[in-house]
């Protein structure tokens, strides 16, 4: 089966651990217990990986400023994934 990952599909992904290693992603599960009032996507394990989230979590826990940059720029039709990104950004802004 061919693996395909783009803004509209993610077909044929059978081994997420390989993708985690290839892209330097760490599991979010170990951070989740430390996130105060996690957003629904975190609680439901829809967000299950991160790259460099520890400094953001540290800022949240110590009430320090931090920035969130999404790279949000739809290259096609708007889809539910776009809304999910915006929901997460809003959650972070409210911290």
Query: If you compute it from the alpha carbons, what radius of gyration comes out, rounded to the nearest whole angstrom?
Result: 15 Å
Q: Per the principal axes of the C-alpha atoms, what is the gross shape?
A: globular
Number of strand elements? 4
Low-confidence stretches: none
Strand order of the biggest β-sheet? 1-2
Structural class by secondary-structure content = mainly alpha
Euclidean distance between termini CA atoms? 42 Å
Measured by DSSP, the beta-strand proportion falls in 5-15%
Mean pLDDT: 86
How would you characterize the largest beta sheet? 2 strands, antiparallel
Helix content: 25-40%
Tally of DSSP helical segments: 4
Domain count: 1
SSE string, helices as H and strands as E: EEHEHEHH
Structure description:
It contains four helices and four strands. By secondary structure, the protein is mainly alpha-helical. The chain has one domain. Strands 1-2 form a two-stranded antiparallel sheet. A two-stranded antiparallel sheet has the order 3-4. A hairpin with a 4-residue loop joins β1 and β2. The longest helix is centred in the C-terminal third of the chain and has 14 residues. It starts with a strand and ends with a helix.
